[in-house]
């Protein structure tokens, strides 16, 4: 059954259904669908164990995020399909999130997610420890004889140093994929979507991802850390933060390397790998100088 056939077979439609692909997803096929009653977003995608994506977890996180006022409502779910409320909103870009006013809104939303989602979360929950993910991706790349496997010894050595530098952590419920496309603005407020990688984690991972994915300046990072932790960042916090920021960029790099041979979606993963490897190396250099 094709993704469109799966969409049309959902038991929720009233009258004629019109659907069209929605761009942006690189772990799902997304559609905007309209029937005689309402407009919704349909996400078609099964579990992806190689990326540690489990749809039961995405569903639980999506429901809890809506209850926390962070994300749109879940309308329907079944194996391989998640239907959520359509928002008349625009997808943000990295340039949007690099603007101080928008960054402030995004940070408030992320902090709310960290704080409030665990109060609404039901059932089994996953953890997202980036250094485990990095080691697992490296094993997958070796098993597949990836052309990138020659880089792995150095990358794993660097990851080990970063993990030691992060040290003990506070635990929050993280989104863990703060790409600009996962923020929507409806003209009044921001929303956070796509909970594929959600799980308990250090807040530094989301903060580092927010910075690495959106090209924040060091001054913006300092204001972000001060706002989130309600105190100026000292040298120790900066060092731990920069370690996690570099780890976030390394995870995105390895994710893309694995996706080069695993994903069937039409996306230029090779170019994405090169861009993220450059981001990681810049973040690693900043960590080593801190």
TrEMBL record:
A GO MF term: ethanolamine kinase activity
| Example of a GO cellular component annotation carried by this entry | cytoplasm
**Coiled-coil regions, chain positions:** none
* Keyword Protein biosynthesis among UniProt keywords: no
Its BP terms in the Gene Ontology are: phosphatidylethanolamine biosynthetic process
Keyword set, alphabetical order: Kinase, Transferase
Q: Which InterPro entries match?
A: Aminoglycoside_PTrfase, Kinase-like_dom_sf
User: In the UniProt record, does the keyword Kinase occur?
Assistant: yes
Annotated Gene3D superfamilies: 3.90.1200.10, Phosphorylase Kinase, domain 1
- Tell me which residues make up the Aminoglycoside phosphotransferase domain: 19-242
CDD domains recorded for this chain? ChoK-like
Instruction: Name any one Pfam family assigned in the record.
Output: APH
Q: What is this protein called?
A: Choline/ethanolamine kinase
* Organism this protein belongs to: Rhodobacter ferrooxidans
Q: What is the lineage of its organism?
A: Bacteria, Pseudomonadati, Pseudomonadota, Alphaproteobacteria, Rhodobacterales
């Amino acid at each position: 059954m094709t993704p469109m056939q799966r969409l049309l077979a959902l038991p929720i439609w009233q009258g004629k259904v019109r659907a069209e692909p929605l761009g942006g997803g690189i772990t799902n096929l997304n559609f905007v669908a309209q029937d005689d009653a309402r407009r919704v977003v349909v996400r078609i995608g099964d579990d992806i164990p190689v990326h540690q994506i489990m749809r039961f977890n995405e569903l639980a996180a999506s429901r809890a995020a809506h209850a926390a006022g962070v994300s749109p409502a879940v309308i329907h779910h079944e194996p391989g399909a998640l239907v959520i409320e359509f928002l008349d909103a625009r997808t943000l870009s990295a340039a949007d999130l690099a603007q101080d006013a928008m960054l402030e809104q995004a940070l408030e939303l992320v902090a709310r997610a960290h704080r409030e989602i665990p109060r609404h979360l039901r059932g089994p929950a996953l953890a997202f420890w980036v250094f485990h993910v990095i080691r697992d991706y490296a094993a997958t790349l070796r098993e597949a004889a990836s052309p990138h496997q020659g880089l792995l010894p150095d990358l794993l050595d660097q990851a080990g140093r970063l993990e030691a530098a992060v040290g003990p952590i506070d635990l929050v419920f993280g989104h863990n994929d703060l790409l600009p496309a996962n923020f929507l603005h409806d003209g009044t407020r921001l929303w956070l979507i796509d909970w594929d990688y959600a799980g308990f984690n250090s807040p530094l991972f989301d903060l580092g991802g927010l910075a690495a994915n959106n090209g924040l300046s060091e001054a913006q990072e300092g204001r972000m850390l001060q706002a989130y932790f309600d105190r100026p960042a000292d040298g120790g916090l900066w060092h731990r933060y920069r370690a996690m920021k570099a780890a976030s960029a390394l995870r995105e790099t390895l994710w893309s390397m694995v996706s080069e041979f695993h994903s069937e979606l039409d996306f230029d993963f090779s170019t994405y790998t090169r861009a993220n490897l450059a981001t990681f190396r810049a973040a690693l250099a900043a960590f080593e100088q801190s």
